[in-house]
Amino acid sequence: MDELRNAKGQTLAEFLIAYDVNKYPRPSVTADTAAFTLVEKDGALRLCVALVRRGNHPDLGRYALPGGFLNMDETTLEGAARELLEETGVSGLPLRRFGVFDALDRDPRTRVITVGHYGLAPLGSLRPEGGDDAAEAGLFTVQVKRESWCPQAETYRILLGGKVRLLSRAQLRYDELGSYTAALPKASYGLASDHDHVLFSALLALNGLPRERAALLLTLGQPQREREAVAALDYALGALPQRV
After folding, report:
1. Gap between the Cα atoms of 108 and 95, Å rounded
2. Where do the structural domains in the chain lie, given as residue ranges?
3. Distance between CA atoms of residues 29 and 112, nearest Å
4. Which residues have C-beta within 8 Å of that of residue 109, sequence separation ≥ 6?
């Protein structure tokens, strides 16, 4: 059978040889990860997320989710896992994508689009240590609180407690198609770049899992603590709507 040819009479092979890869501007792509686990705090389990303190510009010294630029030979899942290992020393964590973040001004270096991922690490298994571009890494307790509400939007605060206390904010907005997450104007007290928005979206994805399933994953090997894990998730995420 004859090969298909385009309007210029080219076969696929001929088209690829002639194709100019610089014809269109190419944005950079990164992969960021919200790695969640549980820790013992004040006699109870608390939900935590791994954060890194940036060791380079931009947002030098500010906390962020671990992540970085993709290599040309890896998927976003592979890139997220590699960056998580390089920046925190954590490996082997199953990851899932939960969103794409593409604000035009999210990175001052160049046009950067990031793909968000999240994973659940069993109690006691996540001990991040800084590396690569991360000056340090650590676990921060998480509690979401609703700050304000109107028919078009709900504003939430995310209280993060670790070596320092951080306040993150984001919104859940509503239109004819349903709900979507949105970033608030960048503030000096939040996470680096748009990671307030990314983390909030990750928490919504986690909240969308059945509590018992998430608790099971967070207590693998310690089934007697599943009920405590459910309580920890309720404490951290109870202010969020169950379905969005």
Report:
1. 28
2. 26-237
3. 6
4. 58
Residue type, 236: A
| β-strands 63-64, 67-69 pairing | unpaired
Query: Residue holding tokens 């309007």?
Result: 7
Are 184 and 170 in contact by the 8 Å Cβ rule? The answer is: yes
Q: pTM for the full model?
A: 0.94
Q: At what angle do helices 211-218 and 226-237 cross, to 10 degrees?
A: 120
pLDDT digits (tens, 9 = 90+) for 91-131: 999 999 999 999 999 999 999 999 999 999 999 898 887 66
From 120, 138, 146, select the one nearest 64 (Cα to Cα): 138
Instruction: Look at the block and give the residue holding tokens 């076969």.
Output: 11
Over residues 168-183, the pLDDT tens digits come to 999 999 999 999 999 9
Any residues with CB less than 8 A from the CB of 87 and at least 6 apart, and which?
52, 66, 67, 68, 130, 131, 132, 133, 134, 137
Q: What percent of the chain has pLDDT over 90?
A: 87
Structure tokens at 15: 């088209």
Of the candidates 51, 45, 49, 35, the residue with the CA atom closest to the CA atom of residue 235 = 45
Amino acid in position 78: E
Domain 26-237, CATH homologous superfamily name and number? Nucleoside Triphosphate Pyrophosphohydrolase (3.90.79.10)
- Token pair for 83: 């960056």
- Tens digit of pLDDT for each residue in 38-85? 999 989 999 999 999 998 999 999 999 999 999 999 999 999 999 999
